[in-house]
Specification:
Shape: globular
Strand order of the largest sheet: 5-4-7-9
CATH class: Mainly Beta
Distance between the termini: 31 Å
Length: 93
């Protein structure tokens, strides 16, 4: 997988609320016809803890249930066939 910044057809604009302990929202942007396939949450060691398929609608707000994650620092990114977004950090308390 390649990670591109400005040339990537999809990316996460904002993660909120941050920190959180129940739900987080992702504000995402993507080019028409270039929506990501999934949302990945992983820990600081790179272990994937949550994989959620991305609905192929034009929805720009994704809600993730993080209530089962322990307190700590995590990262979230969007993933497609050959591209991934730049990971965004968030904290769980």
């Amino acid at each position: 997988m390649d990670v591109l910044s400005e040339n990537n057809p999809f990316h996460i604009e904002k993660v909120f609320p941050n920190p959180s302990n129940n739900l987080i929202h992702l504000e995402v942007k993507f080019a028409v016809g270039q929506a990501p396939e999934s949302v990945l949450v992983y820990d600081v060691m790179g272990n994937i803890l949550l994989t959620t398929p991305y609905a192929t609608s034009s929805e720009n707000d994704i809600e993730l249930d993080i209530s089962k994650l322990s307190s700590g620092l995590y990262f979230v990114k969007l993933s497609g066939d050959i591209l991934e977004s730049i990971p965004k950090p968030f904290s769980v308390y």
